[in-house]
């Protein structure tokens, strides 16, 4: 009887998937993607802020179909220049502030942002700190949350989290598997969690395959238990790309979205069950 009472209090988690996850000879247009998302239970999505199809009414079209934009993903090509003196860094800051402006204009509450790319990471310095301060001030003025995503290093994200109490965390499960094996970012920043990127790989160094969950070797029982521990109530958001692996060779768009939907719902159920058992 106690268990039943507890289960009634657990929120049914909703699932999401990134737009344009399927590419190839049969790449679906936005209208077909919307249909496939709806058919397979996806109620949330996100997209890169610099995607060429972001404008032109696409956001409204997706929203009218009942699919919510949880986040915009800030561009990250050239992100290391944020920490270097010069015009490239100034241009990168403009790119990131433009992402914040787009979040505000499309009523998207969260921007996901990287802090560095590749190895070695740029040294944390006053140049970068000043630029990120401008970015954070812009986000606060626009009432947008910035969720910083785990990549290859702890120091830069720890520094940002220490400086800015309003900074949030985006847990990228796939990155943790292939970039920083053995480091548990949720233990450090789980209380600042605002978004998740869920995908799989085979934990090879820099092997960022963006597989559908359960198609690699990530222990998704542990993922579910971790999210339950931090009372996760957000979107079970997949960040997957058919083109990053030959695992889905021969999959039609219908097969790919169906498989992704089944996996996302399976994980959502696991998280709910873990909450009940906690």
Q: Proportion of β residues? A: 5-15%
Widest sheet: strand ordering = 7-6-5-4-3-2-1-8
Average pLDDT reading: 93
Number of strands: 8
Major beta-sheet overview: 8 strands, parallel
Proportion in helices: 40-55%
What structural class do the secondary elements suggest? Answer: alpha/beta
Order of helices and strands: HEHEHEHEHEHEHHEHEH
| Number of helices in the DSSP assignment | 10
Basic shape: globular
Please state the CA-atom Rg, rounded to the nearest Å.
19 Å
Ends apart, CA distance between termini: 16 Å
| Low-confidence runs | 1-10
Structure, explained:
The structure is a single chain. The chain is of the alpha/beta class and 278 residues long. It is built from ten helices and eight strands. The protein has an eight-stranded parallel β-sheet.
Descriptive tags:
single chain, 278 residues, alpha/beta, 8-stranded parallel β-sheet, 8 strands, 42% helix, globular
Summarize the structure.
By secondary structure, the protein is α/β, with parallel strands linked by helices. It has helices spanning 2-8, 30-39, 58-64, 87-106, 126-142, 155-163, 173-178, 185-189, 220-229, 253-277; strands at residues 15-17, 42-48, 68-73, 110-113, 145-149, 168-172, 193-197, 236-238. It is globular, with a radius of gyration of 19 Å.
Indicate the topology.
Layout: H1 2-8, E1 15-17, H2 30-39, E2 42-48, H3 58-64, E3 68-73, H4 87-106, E4 110-113, H5 126-142, E5 145-149, H6 155-163, E6 168-172, H7 173-178, H8 185-189, E7 193-197, H9 220-229, E8 236-238, H10 253-277
Parallel strand pairs: 1-2, 1-8, 2-3, 3-4, 4-5, 5-6, 6-7
Helix pairs in contact: 4-5, 9-10
């Amino acid at each position: 009887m106690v268990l039943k009472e507890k289960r009634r209090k657990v929120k049914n988690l909703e699932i999401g998937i990134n737009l344009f996850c399927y590419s190839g000879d049969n790449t679906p247009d936005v209208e077909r993607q919307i249909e496939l998302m709806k058919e397979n239970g996806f109620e949330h999505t996100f997209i890169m802020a610099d995607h060429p199809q972001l404008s032109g009414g696409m956001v409204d079209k997706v929203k009218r179909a009942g699919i919510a934009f949880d986040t915009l993903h800030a561009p990250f090509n050239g992100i290391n220049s944020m920490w270097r003196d010069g015009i490239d860094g100034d241009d990168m800051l403009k790119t990131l502030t433009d992402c914040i402006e787009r979040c505000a204009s499309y009523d998207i509450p969260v921007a996901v942002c990287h802090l560095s790319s590749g190895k070695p990471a740029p040294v944390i310095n006053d140049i970068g700190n000043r630029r990120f301060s401008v970015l954070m001030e812009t986000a606060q003025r626009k009432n947008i949350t910035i969720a910083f995503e785990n990549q290859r290093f702890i120091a830069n994200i720890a520094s940002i989290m220490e400086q800015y109490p309003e900074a949030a965390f985006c847990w990228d499960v796939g990155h943790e598997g292939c970039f920083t094996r053995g480091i548990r970012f949720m233990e450090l920043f789980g209380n600042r969690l605002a978004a998740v990127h869920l995908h799989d790989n085979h934990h090879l160094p820099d092997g960022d395959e963006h597989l559908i969950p359960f198609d690699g070797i990530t222990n998704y029982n542990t993922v579910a238990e971790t999210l339950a521990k931090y009372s996760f109530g957000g979107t079970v958001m997949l960040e997957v790309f058919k083109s990053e692996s030959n695992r889905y060779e021969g999959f039609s768009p219908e097969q790919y979205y169906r498989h992704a939907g089944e996996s996302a719902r399976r994980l959502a159920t696991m998280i709910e069950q873990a909450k009940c058992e906690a």
